[in-house]
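Write out this protein's structure.
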Amino acid sequence: MGKGSIWIATIVLLGIGLIYVQYSKRQVTTQIDSIFLIDRAEVARVSIERAEEKLELIKKAGTWHISGHDTLQIRQDRIDGLFDNVLSVKRSTVMTEDLNKWPTYSVDDASGLQLTLFDGNGNTVGAFVFGPSRSDWSKSYVRIEPSPTVYLADQNVVYRLSTSETFWGEVPGPIGVEADSPRVIEVDVSGSGGN
């Protein structure tokens, strides 16, 4: 085998190696996986925490309640948003696996928004830390505990997770009157004035 054949074989092998590396990188960066892999019906308690603020939602007899706030009625659209949007988030690109870089992505204990889900027996079925993306407001970062890996998520869900009771609940209207029903006022337009 001559020198020319060796060079050609080397170039071909380098080309194949380069194609393989590029293909592998593409597989890692475009792979999209759901972060939440259990049935919604299994979730019986939700804890949302940021810094010193914490809120818990508890399901009793099939109905969600805000822990410690019996005067507030749960807003069903918020619960639906939690399960339909937040828990349907998909992770994609790995941003870092370095714990020291968590603050950069706002997924550390001090700045991250922590979402923990429990089943009816009190077992943790999912624990996530979300941080908003500073470069793309429509996305966020997510860390799935206990893993140190931070992923780019396919949507921004931070605004759907609040530790405010009034975000999740509202004061119920009077019994028998729906909050959104219009008030009806009768007006005599006949001009008779009641005569």
